[in-house]
Amino acid sequence: MTGADTQNLDLLRSSLKLCPNFPKKGITFIDVFGAFANPKAHRALIDLILSRLKKLGTTIDAVVGLEARGFIFGPQIALELQVPFVPVRKLGKLPGKVAKIDYDLEYGKDTMEIQTQVLKPGTKILLVDDLLATGGTLGAAQKLCVDLGCEVVETLVIIELLGLNGRAKLTDVNHFTTLLQFSEADLEEIATNSDRIHESNHA
Ligand SMILES: O=P(O)(O)OC[C@H]1O[C@H](OP(=O)(O)OP(=O)(O)O)[C@H](O)[C@@H]1O
Ligand SMILES: Nc1ncnc2[nH]cnc12
Protein backbone atom coordinates (compact mmCIF):
# COMPACT_ATOMS: atom_id res chain seq x y z
CA MET A 1 0.00 0.00 0.00
CA THR A 2 1.34 3.46 -0.89
CA GLY A 3 1.62 6.34 1.60
CA ALA A 4 -1.27 8.04 -0.22
CA ASP A 5 -3.44 4.92 0.23
CA THR A 6 -2.71 4.82 3.98
CA GLN A 7 -3.57 8.52 4.34
CA ASN A 8 -6.75 8.07 2.30
CA LEU A 9 -7.81 5.08 4.43
CA ASP A 10 -7.33 7.08 7.65
CA LEU A 11 -9.37 9.97 6.23
CA LEU A 12 -12.12 7.62 5.06
CA ARG A 13 -12.26 5.73 8.37
CA SER A 14 -12.53 8.91 10.43
CA SER A 15 -15.34 10.28 8.20
CA LEU A 16 -17.73 7.43 9.07
CA LYS A 17 -20.19 7.81 11.93
CA LEU A 18 -21.93 5.12 13.95
CA CYS A 19 -25.54 4.91 14.98
CA PRO A 20 -26.19 2.37 17.77
CA ASN A 21 -29.63 0.67 17.71
CA PHE A 22 -30.53 1.85 14.18
CA PRO A 23 -32.69 0.88 12.34
CA LYS A 24 -33.46 -1.73 15.02
CA LYS A 25 -32.30 -2.39 18.57
CA GLY A 26 -29.04 -4.33 18.59
CA ILE A 27 -27.84 -3.12 15.16
CA THR A 28 -24.88 -0.75 15.09
CA PHE A 29 -25.38 1.12 11.83
CA ILE A 30 -22.31 2.52 10.06
CA ASP A 31 -23.29 5.61 8.12
CA VAL A 32 -21.27 5.73 4.91
CA PHE A 33 -22.82 9.10 4.00
CA GLY A 34 -20.24 10.62 6.35
CA ALA A 35 -17.68 10.00 3.60
CA PHE A 36 -19.79 11.87 1.04
CA ALA A 37 -20.43 14.81 3.38
CA ASN A 38 -16.72 15.60 3.28
CA PRO A 39 -15.22 16.26 -0.18
CA LYS A 40 -11.73 15.23 0.98
CA ALA A 41 -13.02 11.88 2.29
CA HIS A 42 -15.10 11.47 -0.88
CA ARG A 43 -12.01 12.02 -3.05
CA ALA A 44 -10.02 9.65 -0.79
CA LEU A 45 -12.66 6.95 -1.29
CA ILE A 46 -12.66 7.19 -5.09
CA ASP A 47 -8.85 7.31 -5.24
CA LEU A 48 -8.59 4.27 -2.97
CA ILE A 49 -10.97 2.24 -5.11
CA LEU A 50 -9.17 3.18 -8.33
CA SER A 51 -5.81 2.37 -6.73
CA ARG A 52 -7.06 -1.11 -5.64
CA LEU A 53 -8.49 -1.83 -9.10
CA LYS A 54 -5.28 -0.72 -10.80
CA LYS A 55 -3.27 -3.05 -8.55
CA LEU A 56 -5.61 -5.97 -9.32
CA GLY A 57 -5.31 -5.29 -13.07
CA THR A 58 -8.57 -7.13 -13.77
CA THR A 59 -10.43 -6.48 -17.03
CA ILE A 60 -13.82 -4.93 -16.21
CA ASP A 61 -16.60 -4.53 -18.83
CA ALA A 62 -19.30 -3.10 -16.53
CA VAL A 63 -19.83 -1.89 -12.97
CA VAL A 64 -22.97 -3.26 -11.28
CA GLY A 65 -24.02 -1.28 -8.20
CA LEU A 66 -26.55 -2.19 -5.52
CA GLU A 67 -29.38 0.06 -4.35
CA ALA A 68 -29.06 2.35 -2.60
CA ARG A 69 -25.54 3.20 -1.58
CA GLY A 70 -23.85 1.33 -4.43
CA PHE A 71 -25.47 4.00 -6.62
CA ILE A 72 -23.52 6.84 -5.03
CA PHE A 73 -20.01 5.81 -5.97
CA GLY A 74 -20.55 2.98 -8.51
CA PRO A 75 -21.30 5.38 -11.40
CA GLN A 76 -18.19 7.42 -10.58
CA ILE A 77 -16.03 4.31 -10.78
CA ALA A 78 -17.71 3.26 -14.04
CA LEU A 79 -17.03 6.70 -15.49
CA GLU A 80 -13.36 6.56 -14.49
CA LEU A 81 -13.06 3.08 -16.05
CA GLN A 82 -15.08 4.20 -19.10
CA VAL A 83 -17.51 1.27 -18.82
CA PRO A 84 -21.31 1.14 -18.33
CA PHE A 85 -22.91 1.35 -14.89
CA VAL A 86 -25.83 -1.04 -14.30
CA PRO A 87 -28.12 -0.77 -11.24
CA VAL A 88 -29.54 -3.60 -9.18
CA ARG A 89 -32.76 -2.31 -7.61
CA LYS A 90 -35.30 -3.39 -5.04
CA LEU A 91 -38.46 -5.12 -6.32
CA GLY A 92 -40.74 -3.23 -8.74
CA LYS A 93 -38.49 -0.25 -9.54
CA LEU A 94 -36.97 -1.29 -12.89
CA PRO A 95 -39.00 -1.28 -16.14
CA GLY A 96 -38.66 -3.85 -18.93
CA LYS A 97 -37.60 -7.48 -18.64
CA VAL A 98 -35.98 -8.18 -15.29
CA ALA A 99 -34.45 -11.13 -13.43
CA LYS A 100 -35.10 -11.24 -9.70
CA ILE A 101 -33.81 -12.94 -6.59
CA ASP A 102 -35.01 -13.03 -2.93
CA TYR A 103 -32.48 -12.59 -0.14
CA ASP A 104 -32.10 -12.30 3.65
CA LEU A 105 -30.81 -9.13 5.33
CA GLU A 106 -29.18 -8.38 8.70
CA TYR A 107 -32.58 -6.96 9.69
CA GLY A 108 -35.20 -8.41 7.34
CA LYS A 109 -35.86 -9.86 3.87
CA ASP A 110 -36.00 -8.27 0.40
CA THR A 111 -36.05 -8.93 -3.37
CA MET A 112 -33.68 -7.39 -5.93
CA GLU A 113 -33.97 -7.07 -9.70
CA ILE A 114 -31.73 -6.36 -12.69
CA GLN A 115 -32.69 -5.59 -16.31
CA THR A 116 -31.87 -8.68 -18.37
CA GLN A 117 -31.31 -6.88 -21.69
CA VAL A 118 -28.46 -4.73 -20.35
CA LEU A 119 -25.84 -7.35 -19.45
CA LYS A 120 -24.84 -9.85 -22.12
CA PRO A 121 -23.48 -13.35 -21.29
CA GLY A 122 -19.72 -13.18 -20.74
CA THR A 123 -19.71 -9.59 -19.44
CA LYS A 124 -16.97 -9.15 -16.82
CA ILE A 125 -18.55 -7.39 -13.87
CA LEU A 126 -17.24 -5.35 -10.97
CA LEU A 127 -19.96 -5.57 -8.31
CA VAL A 128 -20.05 -2.73 -5.75
CA ASP A 129 -21.93 -1.88 -2.58
CA ASP A 130 -21.18 0.16 0.52
CA LEU A 131 -21.14 -2.59 3.12
CA LEU A 132 -20.91 -6.32 3.75
CA ALA A 133 -22.85 -7.40 6.85
CA THR A 134 -24.40 -10.91 6.71
CA GLY A 135 -23.48 -11.15 3.00
CA GLY A 136 -27.08 -11.91 2.01
CA THR A 137 -27.29 -8.93 -0.37
CA LEU A 138 -23.98 -9.33 -2.17
CA GLY A 139 -24.24 -13.12 -2.29
CA ALA A 140 -27.64 -12.80 -3.97
CA ALA A 141 -26.39 -10.09 -6.37
CA GLN A 142 -23.46 -12.29 -7.40
CA LYS A 143 -25.90 -15.13 -8.11
CA LEU A 144 -28.17 -12.81 -10.10
CA CYS A 145 -25.24 -11.78 -12.35
CA VAL A 146 -23.95 -15.34 -12.75
CA ASP A 147 -27.46 -16.58 -13.63
CA LEU A 148 -27.39 -14.11 -16.54
CA GLY A 149 -24.19 -15.76 -17.80
CA CYS A 150 -21.92 -12.92 -16.65
CA GLU A 151 -18.64 -13.27 -14.76
CA VAL A 152 -18.26 -11.36 -11.49
CA VAL A 153 -14.52 -10.71 -11.73
CA GLU A 154 -14.38 -8.58 -8.55
CA THR A 155 -16.75 -7.64 -5.73
CA LEU A 156 -15.90 -4.50 -3.78
CA VAL A 157 -17.31 -2.93 -0.63
CA ILE A 158 -16.20 0.07 1.38
CA ILE A 159 -16.94 -1.53 4.77
CA GLU A 160 -16.90 -5.13 6.02
CA LEU A 161 -18.48 -6.04 9.37
CA LEU A 162 -16.29 -8.95 10.45
CA GLY A 163 -18.57 -10.17 13.26
CA LEU A 164 -21.26 -11.33 10.83
CA ASN A 165 -18.98 -13.46 8.60
CA GLY A 166 -20.62 -12.21 5.40
CA ARG A 167 -17.80 -13.67 3.31
CA ALA A 168 -19.29 -17.13 3.88
CA LYS A 169 -22.24 -16.13 1.66
CA LEU A 170 -20.05 -14.92 -1.24
CA THR A 171 -19.47 -17.21 -4.18
CA ASP A 172 -15.81 -16.22 -4.61
CA VAL A 173 -13.85 -14.75 -1.69
CA ASN A 174 -10.64 -14.70 -3.72
CA HIS A 175 -12.06 -11.83 -5.74
CA PHE A 176 -13.42 -9.74 -2.90
CA THR A 177 -12.01 -6.33 -2.00
CA THR A 178 -12.86 -4.45 1.16
CA LEU A 179 -11.42 -1.07 2.12
CA LEU A 180 -12.25 -0.96 5.84
CA GLN A 181 -12.97 -3.80 8.24
CA PHE A 182 -14.68 -3.43 11.62
CA SER A 183 -14.80 -6.13 14.30
CA GLU A 184 -17.38 -6.04 17.11
CA ALA A 185 -14.61 -4.74 19.39
CA ASP A 186 -13.77 -1.91 16.94
CA LEU A 187 -17.42 -0.86 16.88
CA GLU A 188 -17.60 -0.88 20.68
CA GLU A 189 -14.44 1.20 20.90
CA ILE A 190 -15.65 3.77 18.35
CA ALA A 191 -18.95 3.94 20.23
CA THR A 192 -17.07 5.32 23.25
CA ASN A 193 -16.04 8.37 21.17
CA SER A 194 -18.97 10.79 21.09
CA ASP A 195 -17.55 12.57 17.98
CA ARG A 196 -18.14 9.38 16.03
CA ILE A 197 -21.71 8.76 17.20
CA HIS A 198 -24.72 10.29 15.48
CA GLU A 199 -27.01 12.31 17.63
CA SER A 200 -30.26 10.44 17.22
CA ASN A 201 -34.01 10.86 17.40
CA HIS A 202 -34.43 7.12 17.29
CA ALA A 203 -35.18 5.16 20.43
O1 LIG B 1 -24.64 -8.01 4.00
P1 LIG B 1 -26.09 -7.78 4.28
O2 LIG B 1 -26.53 -8.29 5.59
O3 LIG B 1 -26.95 -8.27 3.17
O4 LIG B 1 -26.32 -6.21 4.39
C1 LIG B 1 -25.71 -5.27 3.56
C2 LIG B 1 -26.72 -4.46 2.82
O5 LIG B 1 -27.58 -3.77 3.72
C3 LIG B 1 -27.59 -2.38 3.39
O6 LIG B 1 -28.58 -2.06 2.48
P2 LIG B 1 -30.13 -2.06 2.86
O7 LIG B 1 -30.68 -3.40 2.64
O8 LIG B 1 -30.26 -1.44 4.20
O9 LIG B 1 -30.79 -1.18 1.74
P3 LIG B 1 -30.60 0.34 1.28
O10 LIG B 1 -29.15 0.51 0.87
O11 LIG B 1 -31.54 0.45 0.14
O12 LIG B 1 -30.95 1.21 2.45
C4 LIG B 1 -26.23 -2.16 2.79
O13 LIG B 1 -26.20 -0.98 2.01
C5 LIG B 1 -26.04 -3.40 1.98
O14 LIG B 1 -26.64 -3.31 0.71
N1 LIG C 1 -24.68 -2.38 10.38
C1 LIG C 1 -24.96 -1.81 9.23
N2 LIG C 1 -24.57 -0.54 8.97
C2 LIG C 1 -24.88 0.02 7.77
N3 LIG C 1 -25.54 -0.60 6.80
C3 LIG C 1 -25.91 -1.86 7.03
N4 LIG C 1 -26.55 -2.75 6.28
C4 LIG C 1 -26.69 -3.89 6.95
N5 LIG C 1 -26.14 -3.79 8.15
C5 LIG C 1 -25.65 -2.51 8.24
TrEMBL record:
Chemical reaction(s) catalysed: AMP + diphosphate = 5-phospho-alpha-D-ribose 1-diphosphate + adenine
Instruction: Write out the annotated subcellular location.
Output: Cytoplasm
GO biological process annotation, one example: purine ribonucleoside salvage
Q: Which residues form the Phosphoribosyltransferase domain?
A: 37-160
Q: Where is it predominantly found?
A: cytoplasm
Do you know which SUPFAM superfamilies this protein is assigned to?
A: PRTase-like
Per UniProt, the enzyme's principal EC class comes to: transferase
UniProt-listed InterPro entries:
Ade_phspho_trans, PRTase-like, PRTase_dom, UPRTase/APRTase
Q: What is its EC number?
A: 2.4.2.7
Q: Which GO terms describe its molecular function?
A: adenine binding; adenine phosphoribosyltransferase activity; AMP binding
Classification via Pfam families: Pribosyltran (PF00156)
Q: Which key words are in the record? A: Cytoplasm, Glycosyltransferase, Purine salvage, Transferase
Query: What is its quaternary makeup?
Result: Homodimer.
Q: Which HAMAP family match?
A: Aden_phosphoribosyltr (MF_00004)
Family, according to the entry, reads as follows: Belongs to the purine/pyrimidine phosphoribosyltransferase family.
Q: What does this protein do?
A: Catalyzes a salvage reaction resulting in the formation of AMP, that is energically less costly than de novo synthesis.
Q: What is this protein called?
A: Adenine phosphoribosyltransferase
Q: Which organism is it from?
A: Adineta steineri
